[in-house]
Structure formats: structure tokens, C-alpha cells
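Form 7-S
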Amino acid sequence: MSSLGKGDSEQMVPDINRNRVAEILQQLVRIPSINPAFPGGTGEAELGRYVEEFLLRLNLPAERQVVAEGRFNVLGTLPGRSQRKLLLEAHMDTVQTIGMTIPPFDGTIEGGKLYGRGACDTKASLAAMLAAIEVLALAGIRPEVTIELAAVVDEETTYIGVSALAERIKPDAAEYIGAVVGEPTGLDIISAHKGCCRFYVDVNGIACHSSNPALGINAIDQTSKVLSFVNELHERRYPQRAHPLTGPPTVCVTGIQGGVAPNTVPAHCRITVDRRTVPGEEPLIVYEEMKRELEELAGAEGLELTVSEPFVIDYAMETDQKEPIVRYLLTATQTYEPQAIIRGAAYCSDASKLVRVAVPSVVFGPGHISEAHTQDEWIELIQVEQAVCALRDLILNVKTI
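Output:
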């Protein structure tokens, strides 16, 4: 960006070099870091080593937090003048590259955009954090608060990276002014988002030859009654529970499996249910409510069904808009993107795990969620530069309280 930053100390800070920002992001994209749970999963270790070496070259402390075999978070520190802390957190893992129409790891720059897997979700956010820390470290700036950087693993599946980080932070949570969690928000500040609960419903019938289906009980036909019930929840009941920032809870069926042969009436059908929670809802309580109602439906309709235990649980989160982290980040961002607002989001993020241990957190970063996970994933470099400037100014101006 063209203007110099200035902190409360009136010490001038060197301008952000847009070429350097693009270079950092390009280097991140060129390191494959596909989550091991996905096809072609490489893991995040090579990218973690890059972040570690980046920090060490700046003479900043860097530490590995091992969370699973071969998988580790990287934690760095830009020392401040006080023990109060500001956390910058972004995940290193990406989704798979199957079906991409561009080279996923070239980091090609064209028309002001950088292309590649993870460019938007969320290596642009990580690059912005690294670039902001770099410019301040090279200028010898010591901010009022201590800045911690956490590059974590496994956001795209089970959150083991941020969960381990949260447990580490928990005893000292009171020291944290707040956390900025990197995700593509279009430079808006997300102060609330949804959580989720995912589970299976298995419906059983009786198999028979399809030439005489009346001799059996078609499990797929029986499952249609469950589908109608789920749609009723989504369309008629949940809109009444809307949250002002995130909107209403939602529920949908995201998978169905049934049948063994084209000439056999199926004896079993399984559906996958995805229930999105809003702030104020606890996912396990929501799950128990749905399980009870599904069992009541089974009794009323003569169904034989089983509701599995949840295989994914994540939490909704909300941070009070009066929290300093929200106010300081909005002020810093609106200098470069006047249209930036505080809003909610329908997706989940690492932020909810930090809020659960009492660290006020917001989600923020360049790019838009619609550009994530796509066949030609990309990010506008101007937004990455704006994010760097906003984070730099946040670090310079946030105060201890």
C-alpha cells in the first residue's frame, strides 16, 4: 500500500512491499499441504518447516507443538513491551486437488490474482500475518502487546491443531486481549459463526426379490419419511430460532447409501445428517433433541431406525462486538477497506475453540469463501496487501487493558 503506518508511539513503520507480500504467498502455495484425510494428502510438515524458518530468519522465537505423528503446529512470538498478548492464528492444511483446472501448486500470478490450492483458504491469511510480522521485526518495532503467531494443522477435518493450541493457552487465557483467526472473509470482521453436529441415521427393512416387493420392506422407501421430517425441521421450525448475525440453524441430508443389487429390495439405508448450530445452541443438546424426535417418528410411522453417535462436533461462537479486538481490528481495516463491517458467518472455524477457552476471537482475512476449494482457486493480491496493512496497524495500535 502507498501510505506508511504509524503507531501510537508515533514511530514510523516502513511501507508494505506488495512484491514481497506476493512472494510470501507464492512460496506458501508452492508447498503442498493437503490434509492427510483427503486424497493425495501430503500433510503440513513441509509448510510448517517453512513457517519455522521464516520466523528464525527474523531472529524471532519459533517452537513446534506436536499434535500427532508427523504433524505439528508452529508457534512464533514478536515480543512486546507487556505480557498481554494478541494471537494471530491460521491453518496450514488445504483440501484435495482432484478436479482442479489449473496447476495446483504453481502459484501463478495473472491479472492481479494468484492461483493455486490454498491461495484463498487460507494461505493468503497466513501470508498476511507473516508479512505484517516481518515488516515490524525488520524495522525493530516492539509493539505494546506481545504478538503470538500460530500456524496450525488440521482445520479442514477434526481441528486437532487448534484444539491442542487452545488447551495450551487455557491456563493463561486472561493474558490474551484477543485472537484473529485467518479465513477468507472479504476483509469483514466475523464476530459470530455457526457450529455443526454430524451423525448417521440407519433405517432397516426386509430384503426380498424385487419381482415381488410386497414380500419385503424397502428401507429406501422408509427413509423417505425421515427425509420429510428433516425438511420440515429446516423449512418450518428452525427459521424461528434465527440468530441476528448468523441467521437460523439449518439441517440437511448430505449423503445417502442404500441397496445391494438392482434386483433386491434393500434391507438397509443410511443417511448423513448435517445440523448447523447458532450461537447459544450446544451441539450435543441439539443432537439429543433430534435423536429423541427421530425415535418418536419411528414409533409413529412403524420404522426401524438407529441414530448413531455424532462423528463430528463443532461449536458455534460469538464474541461481543464491544470487545477491544473487534473494535481495534475494524478501525484498522476500514482505513484500507472502508466497506468492511462486522457480521456473522454460516461456516465453522478455529475461532470457536479459542472462544471456548475464554480468548475473545474474530475471523478475518482476504478473499471470499466462494473462492475456496474451487477448481481454479484464486485470491486478489490487493486484498492480501490490505490485510497486511490492517494487521500491521492492529499490532501497532492495540493497547493493553
